[in-house]
Amino acid sequence: MKRRYPDKSNVLLVNITRLGDMLQATPTIAGMKQENPNCKITVVVEKQFEDVCYHIPNIDEVRAVDLGMTVRSLSREADGIVDAFEYVTEVVDDLRAQNFDYCLNMSSSAYTALLLKLVGIKRNGGWTSDEEGYRVIESDWARLFASSVFHQNRQFNSLNLVDVFRCSADVDQHPQRLLMKVSPESEAYCDDLLREAAFTAKGPLIAIQAGASQEKRQWAPEHFIRLIKVLETKLDARIVLVGSKKELKIIDPIKAGANSPNVFVAAGRTSIPQLAALLKKCELLVTGDTGPMHMSVAVGRPVVAMFLASAYGFETGPYSEGNLVLQPVIGCGPCNPNKPCAGLECHDTISPELVAELVALRVRGDVKKLPDGLADPKQVIVYRSFFDRHGFCDLEALNSTQYDTWYRYRQAYRKVWLEDLAGFDCGSPAPKNSKLSVLDSGIEGIGSVVELAQQGTELIQELMRCISDVRVPAQKLGAVNAQIVEVDRRIEQVGFHHPPLGPVTRLFCFAKENLSGTDALSLASQMKTNYDDLARRCQKLSAWYS
Amino acid sequence: MNDLEKLARLMKSDWDRRVRHDYRFWMSDGHKSDDEMWQAGERDFNIISKSISDTASKTLLEIGCGVGRLLRPALRAFAHVVGFDVSQAALDKARELLGPNPKLTLQLGNGFDLQPIPAASVDVVVSFAAMTVMPTDVIASYLLEIHRVLKPDGVARLQLYYGSEYRVCREDTLHVRCYAENNLRSALQAAGFDVQSFSDLELPFQVSFDEIGIRAAVISVRKSQRAPVALGELSHILLPGGEVEVSIEHSPQDLEHWTALNYARQLAEQGQVTKAKETLEYALRHSQNTTIDTRDLLNRIVSEIEGRGGTVPKAEVASTPGSVFEYNLAVLERRFPDLAKRMRAFSSPQRSVEIRSTTEGGSIWYQGQCLDHPTKPLSGAEAWVKREESEKRTKDCSHIVVGGFGLGYHVEKLLARGEWQVSVIEPLEEVFWVAIQQRDLRSCLGSLRALVVGEQSEIDCLDERTELSIRPQHQPLNPEFWTGIRANFYGTRGLLALSPKIGVLGPIQGGTLPMLSYCMRGLYAFNQRPRDLDMSGFASGYHLAEKFVNGKIHQQALQGTYIEMMSQFVLQSLLEKPVDILICMAQAPASGRILTELRNRGVITVLWFVEDYTRFTYWKDIAQYYDFVFTIQKGECIEAIRGAGAGEVHYLPTAFDPFVHRPLVLSEEEKKTWGSPVSFVGAGYHNRQQVFASMAEFPLKLWGTEWPACRPFDRLVQDNGRRLTPEEYVKIFSATDVNINLHSSTERDGVDPFGDFVNPRTFELAGCGAFQLVDQRSLLGEVFEDGKELISFANPNDLRDKVRYYMQHPEERAQIAAAGRERAMREHTYAMRLKRMLSIIYSSRFEGLKRRQDASPWTRMLERSKIDSELHQRCEIAFRRGEEPILDGLVSDIVAGKGRLSETEQKLLFLFHIRKQIIRMKAEETGQKAG
């Protein structure tokens, strides 16, 4: 795999606020250690996740930042601001003293970017900030990450963000699953808990995570009640409802509705390590796209996961082989995570009976084929997670991709990125007349982008000539520059008008925003590379698509 | 380092002078001949270098080598000798006396360090009878330098004094320095030395003086591996109280004068007439500032010299001090030269001043009033100081300004406490003149921080830790003077020490509206923290009542409700962003209810009532809600408003805003539009209509509203009688030859014979540098000089005559306009008025505002933010801008992409984004529930 900084010995990983993010980084962390066992890995996390980090293998040191306290200080105003300032100074001084030689920050937040600027680590993958406070995205992979999660582009991405994150850190070798340690104490606690459950049934122990981080991603309690009833009937299943104390308000009605001695509420009674131990004791977890989903995968238990509303299985699906992912087929999905939804029609594309059937199949073993007619591909596509020959996680449809509008684009883009960014050999697309291939591909607007990229290249060459020749008047330079700005504007515009071109044009825009240095010739040269990249990637996209 | 450089320059000039006068006398006890000097040098070298072994291979450096007394024996013993001195004259002499020697380096020093001697290059450093007379800071600096130049384990031998701390003047290069033994030892330790021995110096003559607690020591120290402390800290360890700026007891001039005179006497007695005369002249050259009485000694020398056939310049001898008055004057001349001049020129004292004897000395009486204690001035002074000490206000202060000097007993007692700096105000020149005739006040006068004598003088050394204490016996003599002093003092101190947040509430409409922005600019001009409450946006709503409702009574009732609602807006806004002082402009929408609410919260309410109190009488209903009312009228107006319940009422005329009201350079087109030989700007009040109707023959333009549409106004009134902006009438003022300013009257014709206040237009016209003819007002003479800075008219006929005259005399117009502008700039800006307003408020509300300020979150934030200079600076700026002490105020001007961000800026932005992120995460949670 192509790498920017293969040699790292003292790494800082910024993964501040989300448990899921922390777990999703575990293959990267393990990969770094696998490639260089002497590499020291430090993570900086929000204080409330500090304990979790001690259950993640391969982390050498944890630096906790108390964001809650900082915000509380700030809300005290006056004195509190100085307290917060002093605290930040302490944090920065402490991190500086560690002399990290590489940092990976995959949080796009402005404050982590500023933190890294303050710490001043020379080599970065991911987000940091420049001298003037602008956010900078350091590597192509991190820019791809940013392009892929850009809402308009999400459906064209089939690379799991765990892999994008990993590649941003130049990690090639890696475990093909998430990782989390389970302590004997936690296991013993869960044994006691399950004894307390006093199940009368003898069937498989199934965990259900009913809560979700957003209400619109949360399947209705009545669906869960129905699911439980079918599982009890079909499998004589023992059900454990997991989750946090906050989620009890959804879980309690489910427990009440199920009205069964074989449904036990563990929600609110487990710490994160204990939840991991509990999931390990279960045979399977039914869940949405949640932290416990990643945890279950990390302790080696399969999941049947519903990716509702804004959740998108290709992006943040379970990172291990053999999980079942349900993705509704609906025009508005995956929707914008930041917008509320009044309809929630995607919830109705998945029936409790289908989920129960999938659970029943999965507890029997890896599911590589579905019984005919089990899942209507017009309503929902059932995927199985697996790893491709390059070690990248992928999803294969078990019913049909016939109604998946974006399937071909995803496939084409996957090959473009694996070839172009990682340097893998993805085989050869069907031969075409090279001159006309772009136009023939059927991707609307792609010809314009290639043409604009060529115009851009020519203008950059002209600009470089102007810069090198001191006799050229400033007005001329200005005029050429104005033409370049116009070309770039049009490239972005074409990307907006033709959604399938969104990822490739957005990546171009991010790269442009991240040109570095002040020397005009160097900037021009970087820009030329950017146009070349755009043209080449469009041609590859076109070839793979057709 | 500047301070050290200054001291070093002084040492250099003092020692060059002394060496040139007599190097043996000033630099050695053996001064009769060079031989005697060398013998003394040999003796002292043996003492200072006792038991140093292996000298033949070592380098010795002497600090303050002078003419080389100790260098000669040192050259015999050491491999290499460096003589270091600040005096070029001394080194020149040393070079002459010692001759060339390859082992010797003579190095002129800068007076406070040992550059260019390399670090760790010297084996032994000595200093004998040299560092003893250096200022403490210089000694400390040399100790650090000795540590630097000494080799590891190198040794220094220093002759210094220990015993009772001897607090001499910083700039003294002759008195010895003496330090407490513990401090001296600690300082040597702190400078990175281990003390090896600390023994008393013994010479054939007295060098230690037990009677005054001073002992001479020779101290041997070895360089340790400890790093020395910083210079400031070392000075502090050596002499914790520091050296004094002025010392009357130990004046260097006195010592040099006295020493030289005694030497002259000795020389005269020995018959060395020429040398004695030369030395006498030297002594007299240093008698200018001396305060000791040397007349007897002088007479002895003079008669001795004259007895041996010499002559002495009599004039110089006669001018040396000779009486209590002269001693005191000598101190005054040094400290307060202008006052000394005045006192010297003061004619005989008034009969009203007398001195009466008591058992504790004299006491001074003025017009039958005793200004000290009548029978026990000393005990009375002591009792007064004790009372002062027990006062809470003096506990936190560092400087007391005493009102009243009397014979100075109480001032001496206060100074003797040593806790405060002391300044004095004595309004009675004759009392002070008698006082300095009566008592030897040299020490007292020399120690005062400031001394103001006479009624015209203003004290200008106030700071936030200064307190005023006026002697009760002085108050009855001149109560108005003391009231003024008190107001000025607390006002000035308030301006220095307080930074309250000041709300300025404007009216919704009317002529006073522009004053809101004038006041804001005025307050900003002297660094206040104003916040404007501009209510003008509510005006259209107010007038809508007239469209919706026809009945006048109902209209008024609804408008009253509307005003109350606006008051509520004001209150709510002030609860969200509190102020300490609320200045309401005339007609500002502040109801009694909200003013009461604000006062209950400790806000000081102020009304600037810039209206004619006889015509606008709403003050009767609202005065009681204001702590301060400022009026543009005097006399009955003040009494009436005070009678209506206002806390304090003061006269404060309006002003002009130099930002708006300034001379303009207009284009020809603008001149054509706005210009005219004669103009008037203002509303068409009754008296104005009556006056201008009779001026139709003049090339007159009338601007403003409410003019009748009939003749001749249809021709005179410009631009359809629309309301003009301040910027527009400034153009009219600038483009007009003769501006008429006629105060409005609804009752009287022409010029109101009882008109008192001066309208804002008077100041604005002057500020614009425009020539104006203004109707006579009783208060006009206080603000402008009629005939020089503007021209007044008494009646319409007078106006017409003067218009005709001044239209014909452009030079006179220009001269008057320029003088008017100069006066306006000097005395009549809004900044000056507001400064005056705040001074008055502070003079009676200082304590309350100070408490409020101390309790304010900003105070602690500003203090704590000093951990980072840029953070502190940002806090200061945000504070000055009137921001609340919140993060947004500190980051509001940090913008990405506007240049490199400093580390502090990055940290603040980091905090800003953390908060934003957490808020967003919380909002997401809430939003999802809605979704």
Brief digest:
Chain A is 47% helix and 13% strand. Chain A is built from 21 helices and 14 strands.
Written description of the protein model:
The complex is a heterodimer of chains A (546) and B (931). With 546 residues, chain A is an alpha/beta fold. Chain A has three domains: 10-168, Glycogen Phosphorylase B (Rossmann fold), CATH 3.40.50.2000; 184-420, Rossmann fold (3-Layer(aba) Sandwich), CATH 3.40.50.2000; 434-545. In chain A, 47% of the residues lie in helices and 13% in strands. Chain A contains 21 helices and 14 strands. Chain A has helices spanning 19-24, 26-35, 50-53, 67-75, 79-97, 110-119, 140-149, 161-168, 184-197, 221-235, 248-258, 272-281, 291-298, 313-316, 352-364, 407-420, 434-440, 446-468, 474-497, 502-513, 520-545, and strands at 10-14, 40-46, 61-65, 102-105, 124-129, 135-137, 205-209, 238-242, 263-265, 284-287, 303-306, 324-328, 380-387, 393-397. In chain A, the strands form two sheets. An eight-stranded mixed beta sheet of chain A has the order 9-8-7-10-11-12-13-14, sandwiched between helices. In chain A, helix 2 (26-35) packs parallel to helix 8 (161-168) and helix 18 (446-468) runs antiparallel to helix 19. Chain B has five domains: 2-238, Rossmann fold; 252-322, no CATH class; 373-497, 3-Layer(aba) Sandwich (Rossmann fold); 501-647, Rossmann fold; 668-828, 3-Layer(aba) Sandwich (Rossmann fold). Chain B has 38 helices and 26 strands. With 931 residues, chain B is of the alpha/beta class. In chain B, strand 18, helix 23 and strand 19 form a beta-alpha-beta unit. In chain B, the strands form five sheets. In chain B, strands 1, 2, 3, 4, 5, 6, 7 and 8 form an eight-stranded mixed beta sheet that branches. Classes of the chains: A alpha/beta (546), B alpha/beta (931). Chain A binds chain B through residues 17, 67-68, 70-71, 74, 77-79, 81-82, 84-86, 88-89, 92, 109-111, 114-115, 117-118, 129, 131-134, 213-216, 338-342, and chain B through 857-858, 860-861, 864-865, 867-868, 871, 884-887, 890, 894-901, 903, 905-911, 913-918, 921, 924, 927-931.
